[in-house]
Write a structure and sequence with these properties.
The structure is a homodimer. Chain A contains eleven helices and ten strands. The first copy, chain A, is of the alpha/beta class. Chain A has one domain: Alpha-Beta Barrel (TIM Barrel), CATH 3.20.20. The first copy, chain A, is globular and about 55 Å long.
């Protein structure tokens, strides 16, 4: 578990607000790992060893593990168990369902898997998210404005005078507070961050889209950063697939360090 | 796999459009099963044996299995494998993410787990759902209007002159067709079904909320049924937890039969 004060302290200690996304596609990991007993875990273990000094969080994308069924979940459990103390463990799972089902998901991710935080899809409304906020010391990270083209379909539609993602920000802030609630915000434009910060001035934002997805770190910091930093910026593929050879871990460390150095300049 | 024509044929053969929801909460299954090597599978196996003649679909709620981590996923795999031919296997998973992640979820549920259908959360827009419709012979079941109180938070908000769930119905119909696309509709009011059927006149609807959640079968049939039936009506707790004693399977069969007989009257 990592509370807000501890997270902020780690950010300043490491001079980094980088979240490394572990989207470990079996078809993309270095070929020489395929002879390992658990190639996906071996890959993630090496990536964690190589990048742990440069990041404050790992985001585990559940889909890439579920693709291998129960054996994938076994690898995922090993990855969660392997992440060192003091680093925020995010299950990027986009869950959300009626109350008694969400309660089971909270149990799955917080109790069984040992995640500190989970990403949540808000479509079914506040009662579908509430069970995740009944776990002291844990975080819900709610989808607000995502960076994919489909964000135009609903998130950026107007509900009355506001965007749907604004309504999500406002409603969800009734469930949690900056100690246990973050938002996924794939914004890059100043105007979007202005809207987000109007409704969620103190919440941490998990920002995807740096690196392979092409977002600019400087822009995000300029518009999204708060006095308490308030940003976790994710990079996945640009780090973990920096090389597909025997040097993949060194290459990942190199990419993570590059981002950390850039981030230090903003702190 | 079960295509639309086969599903309709099974409905008429069994004189039932019942979907049995397998929400197998370990704390609620009969105590005498806890000494089995895999209590959750033993429970589901007995429920399937007892109810398979009275239903055309099983809906496996992934949360209840994930609560036990990788061992839960192992039980879930066994449940999927055990469901007989000719019965639609729905993974009630409410997934949805950016394209390359949704592609991994489609692989997880359709290829690895062997589901025929998966429930999907539409918040991130059409590109987050598209990968699920690239699997011939499989179904995406998209959340439209759910039956929980939180459906008022976003689903029933107005976007221009339409409810958000209407916009979801319209947009999603561009991705799929009645051969591979269903919707979750927790409606009970005539007016709601009128709106749903305006946008999705031929799609099957997966309707929760009969039984423990208290919906009326007659009302749903009256407003939602089409010439091709077009309805799968789910009951979970009222069937699977009909008894917590040694007679749980018989009690489940009895409850499922009662619903089947009522359904036969509407066919």
């Amino acid at each position: 578990m990592l509370n807000r004060a501890q997270l902020i302290s780690e950010i300043h200690k490491k001079r980094s607000f980088l979240c490394v996304g572990l989207d470990s596609d079996k078809t993309k990991i270095p070929k020489h790992l395929l002879s390992e007993p658990d190639p996906v875990f071996a890959f993630n273990k090496a990536i964690i060893d190589a990048t742990r000094d440069y990041c404050v969080s790992y985001k585990i994308n559940t889909a890439f593990f579920e693709a291998d069924g129960w054996m994938g979940w076994q690898s995922m459990q090993k990855v969660f168990d392997y992440i060192p103390e003091g680093i925020l463990k995010i299950a990027d799972a986009k869950r959300g369902d009626i109350g008694n089902t969400s309660h089971q998901y909270a149990k799955a991710f917080f109790d069984t898997l040992g995640a500190d935080a989970i990403t949540l899809a808000p479509y079914m409304g506040n009662d579908s998210l509430a069970p995740f906020f009944e776990y002291p010391g844990h975080w819900g990270i709610v989808l607000a404005l995502t960076s994919n083209p489909g964000s135009a379909d609903y998130e950026q539609q107007k509900v009355g005078s506001e965007f749907l993602y604004e309504v999500v920000l406002k409603n969800t802030c009734k469930l949690g507070n900056p100690e246990n609630l973050m938002f996924v915000v794939g914004a890059t434009k100043a105007q979007e961050f202005e809207i987000v910060r109007k409704h969620a001035p103190h919440n941490f934002l998990l920002v995807p889209g740096i690196g392979a997805q092409g977002g600019s770190l400087a822009e995000v910091v300029k518009y999204g950063k708060t006095a308490d930093v308030g940003l976790l910026i994710n990079a996945s593929r640009s780090i973990i697939y920096a090389s597909s050879g025997f040097d993949f871990a060194d290459a990942a460390a190199h990419e993570a360090l590059k981002i950390q150095v850039e981030m230090a300049g903003f702190l």
